[in-house]
Automatic annotation (TrEMBL):
Family of the protein in this entry: Belongs to the DNA/RNA non-specific endonuclease family.
Record organism: Heliocybe sulcata
Pfam families the record matches: Endonuclease_NS (PF01223)
Protein name: Endonuclease
GO cellular component, as recorded: mitochondrial inner membrane; nucleus
CDD domains: NUC (cd00091)
Binding site for Mg(2+): N200
GO BP terms, alphabetized: apoptotic DNA fragmentation
Limits of the DNA/RNA non-specific endonuclease/pyrophosphatase/phosphodiesterase domain: 93-321
EC identifiers of the protein: 3.1.30.-
Tree of life domain: Eukaryota
GO molecular function, a single term: single-stranded DNA endodeoxyribonuclease activity
Keywords per UniProt: Endonuclease, Hydrolase, Magnesium, Metal-binding, Nuclease
Length: 357
């Protein structure tokens, strides 16, 4: 996909999910996008964002964790006495992340993670895990998640010769705290089908790397990854959502787009260390080849746009109204680290690598 097409796709995504068309995406100012009035929601946020007295921002999952069954309900209407059809949400609480698994699409509906220098093993104040304790992706293997009921489980054979990568929603490089934590990122309940060369192995990896590098500027970084299914306008003028399904029989849906939503926190000033400065930002990328030179800011969308498209409430209205845009408080620019040259020069293969996933 040419770079111009990708940028156009990014603007299209904003128009499609905001509901106001392309003019909304181009004409709205950055402050209005992030700090304007938010749409009303009937439910609370997927995660609860709270600021502790110490100034640290904490994100905790809300709701009841349900894995492999129906949440106990004390009183059901008589029509449901033989079974409650749902919706059933598998909330997966892992060592390095929390996720909501979509049984119908067979990939995460969302994932949430909390990154800090210490958790990434880069803190000068806390010792890093020893080589024997930290995670090594060469020791991890892709596995089916047996905590998901067999009927709704993504399977290894679904991805076999599908033409898509098993794309980590929570990167393995974010879970180096232990081998067990890293192994959990290789469960298929943390995967969604992604275009490989040019996306999962390149631009998407650059974006994941950018999220990790935010820990060098902010004390706390919260990253939310959301697969999306966005409509496009057909020649007859009607809008339709069309997506591929892989597997035999077809089981796993292929998202048309992926969103990264970030929330960062740091002391607002040395004089007020307990008063945090909160920044937020959302980026929607098409599940397609993206040229390295495409600016990251071309994928910026309002947080509310991702919430509306996904049917989620990621942050409270107070957080969205009171936060700055992430591109105002730090540089929204990915680092390009391709490994194409290593393929051409075997002697360089150990020296050049793609950003860790």
């Amino acid at each position: 996909m040419p770079a111009s097409s990708v940028v156009h796709a990014a603007f299209f995504a904003v128009g499609a999910i905001v509901g106001g068309g392309l003019a909304t995406a181009v004409g709205a100012s950055r402050n209005r996008q992030l700090n304007g009035p938010s749409a009303s929601h009937s439910s609370g946020p997927v995660v609860d964002v709270k600021v502790e007295p110490t100034g640290e921002t904490r994100v905790t999952p809300t709701g009841t964790s349900v894995t492999g069954g129906i949440a106990p309900i004390t009183s059901l209407p008589a029509v449901l006495k033989y079974g409650n059809p749902g919706p059933i949400s598998d909330q997966l609480v892992r060592t390095a992340y929390v996720a909501g698994y979509d049984r119908r699409l067979r990939h995460p509906a969302w994932t949430a993670e909390h990154l800090t220098l210490a958790k990434l093993g880069k803190s000068f104040l806390e010792p890093s895990p020893s080589a024997s304790e930290s995670g090594d992706r060469s020791n991890s293997t892709f596995k089916e998640d047996e905590s998901i009921p067999a009927m709704f489980r993504a399977r290894l054979k679904d991805y076999f010769r599908s033409g898509y990568d098993r794309g980590h929603m929570v990167p393995a490089a974010d879970a180096k705290i232990s081998q067990a934590a890293m192994d959990e990122t290789f469960l298929l309940s943390n995967m969604a089908p992604q275009v490989g060369d040019g996306f999962n192995r390149h631009y998407w990896a650059y974006l994941e790397d950018w999220c990790r590098r935010l820990t060098g500027t902010f004390a706390d970084v919260y990253v939310f990854t959301v697969p999306l299914y966005l409509p496009k306008q057909d020649p007859d003028g009607k809008w339709r959502v069309t997506h591929e399904v892989i597997g035999t029989p077809p089981n796993v849906a292929v998202p048309t787009h992926f969103a990264k939503v970030v929330l960062t926190s740091r002391p607002s000033s040395p004089a007020t260390p307990t008063i945090p400065e909160i920044s937020t930002g959302a980026f929607v990328l098409p599940n397609a080849v993206i040229k390295d030179e495409t600016p990251l800011e071309s994928f910026v969308v309002p947080v509310e746009a991702v919430e509306r498209a996904a049917g989620l409430t990621l942050f409270s209205d107070d957080i969205k109204k009171g936060s700055k845009h992430i591109c105002q408080t730090t540089k929204c620019e990915v680092l390009i680290r391709r490994f194409d040259d290593a393929r051409k020069r075997p002697e360089m293969r150990r020296a050049i690598s793609a950003p860790a996933k």
